[in-house]
Amino acid sequence: MSTLAKSALWVTFSEILFNLSGFIIHSLLGRFLGPADYGRYGIVITLTTMVIVLIGNGIPTAMSKYISEYFENNSRMVKKIKKQAVLLQLIIVGGITILFFISIPLICRALNDPTLIPLFRISTLIIPAFAAASFYFSYYTGLHQFNIQASLKTLRSIFRIVFVVALAYFWKVEGSIIGYVIAPGLVFLTAFMVDKFYIEPQLNKKIANEKERDIEFPWKKLVNYAWQIVIFFLAYELLISIDLYLVKALLNDDHLTGIYNAALTVGRIPYYIFYAMTVFLLPMISKSTSENNHEKTAKILGNSLRIMLILLVPMIILMSVFARPILLDFYGAEYTEGAYAMSILEYGVGFLTIFYVMSFALNGAGKTKVIMIISIFGFFMNAILNYLLIKEYGITGSAVATTVTSFIIMLWMLYYLWKYFGVLIKIKSLLKIVIAGSLMYTSSFLFSKGEIAFLFWSIILFAFYLIILFGLGEIKKEDWQFIKNSFAKKPSVN
Question: Helix 323-331 vs helix 339-364: angle between axes, to the nearest 10 degrees?
């Protein structure tokens, strides 16, 4: 628990900063561009990012998993795995980039908007730049170098704001896309230099002190693990993005697409915050399962799920209740018509967050086929429900469809956590969290939903929620002391 929480605090800081930079960018671009151009920007960046996530999490995730099993006592194997991953990733990234460029006219035809072709052609350059930076994030995750990873993530946050916003100010949508090429490119160069002058010498020093041994690691092992991860991420990215694409394709309204993109983007704040947990869950679970330490695995998962629920519930409730002032503060009055859709979508974000974080735990344990199947099912279900409900209820129908789908795949994921690891949130703990959340939700209607006032009331309501849990015995004095000690001492790198 100590290692888990300290790693969480260390990585979460950089993750919050990174996502905060994203929301600053979205907020400023929403105001610079207006709903219509912001909708076009959202379509291009979302689809290109989906491709990036797809290729950036296949081989690199497999590399991270296997490096985490060897980095403590076999540095030769670490270098062997990395070399194989680099070669495989170069082939995949090159092929996907070319294929994406060739497919752009077909993509724009499916979206009923050929004017997007020039924007997509510029965005093609994002793919190799982002994939190169992401490769090093996975590499440092496998080595448990969370401090380096956090520093790189912080640097990427700064570069994103500087280049995306500055170029968008002068060259609108085209400039913002170019900024998304420059920022990860500079992060990659920094990560490469850190590897060459800091990590590589350390590995060579360890190799000199290690016992000579034969090192064989078949590249097919990386591929066999990676292809299931790739399909998972493809299905997952389609699952969480199909609503925006269908809003664009079915309603054929750039204004409404921009409104829904705003609600979707700001509504995912809790999801992006908890993404930090995936960074250290995969290597830690991979290590504990490779050691057949089932007790440790169950403890890590149980604590992670409990912490996530305690913090996620109030965040979802507050963002749903205060959806309108949040959109007003982030984007301006033009976007507040998306508040009702966001208030519904927010609960889907909560379900989806639990599913996504826990899917990395199953990835680390090698249960990749399970999450792959669940994600494929979720994509098709979300696509069908969105198709039916968008035609009838517009963007509100899309929010309902995504929320229903997210709830079902979350339950499916929790079933497998129980089946494989015996991990399930205790009914007593769940009941206490539900009671505290319900009381907070009811109390929220007594407070102002003003543009600035809601921030103050949110803090009061969150404190009220924690006090209730403390009174019910769900949050103990030991938890407070542990958090205090974690902040007082700089997290150690494992």
Answer: 90
Q: Tens digits of per-residue pLDDT, 49-104?
A: 878 777 767 788 888 888 887 777 777 888 888 989 999 899 988 998 999 999 99
Q: Per the structure, how many domains does the chain have?
A: 1
Answer whether residue 493 shows pLDDT above 50. no
Assess whether pLDDT exceeds 70 at residue 311. Answer: yes
Q: What dihedral do alpha carbons 176, 179, 184, 189 form, nearest 10°?
A: 180
Q: Which of 224, 199, 229 is nearest to 61 (CA)?
A: 229
- Block residue for tokens 């989906």: 50
Identify whether 85 is part of a domain: yes
CA angle 335, 265, 454 (to 5 degrees): 65
DSSP assignment of 95-156: HHHHHHHHHHHHHHHHTT-GGGHHHHHHHTTHHHHHHHHHHHHHHHHHTT-HHHHHHHHHHH
Distance CA 440, CA 172 (A): 42
The DSSP result for 47-88, as a single string, is HHHHHHHHHHSSHHHHHHHHHHHHTTT-HHHHHHHHHHHHHH
* Length of the chain as a residue count: 494
Residue carrying the six token digits 């921009």: 258
Tokens for 378? 């979720």
Place of tokens 């076999």: 74
Pair of tokens at residue 248: 């664009």
| CA distances in angstroms from 307 to 251, 337, 492, listed in the order given | 40, 33, 20
Please say if the pLDDT value at position 48 is more than 50: yes
Q: How does 6-19 read in b/e, with b if 16+ C-beta sit within 10 Å?
A: bbbbbbbebbbbbb
Asked whether residue 493 is assigned to any structural domain, the reply reads no
pLDDT tens profile 378-423: 999 999 999 999 988 999 999 999 999 999 999 998 888 888 877 7
Range of the domain at 238: 2-488
Report the alpha-carbon distance of residue 138 to residue 141 in Å, rounded: 5
**Distance from C-alpha of 345 to C-alpha of 339, rounded to nearest angstrom:** 10
Block residue for tokens 């704040």: 269
**Token pair of 144, please?**
């448990």
pLDDT value at 1 more than 50: no
Q: Give the pLDDT of residue 486.
A: 38
Location of structure tokens 């057949």: 292
Rounded CA separation 360/366 (Å): 10
Cα torsion at 95, 100, 101, 105 (round to 10°)?
A: 150
Find out whether 258 and 337 touch, Cβ atoms under 8 Å: no
Contacts of 467 (CB under 8 A, 6+ apart): none
Residue 12 inside a domain? The answer is: yes
The structure tokens 């093609």 sit at 124
Between CA 199 and CA 262 the distance in angstroms is 40
494 is a domain residue: no
Average pLDDT over residues 116-123: 93
Q: How many CB atoms lie within 10 A of CB 255?
A: 15
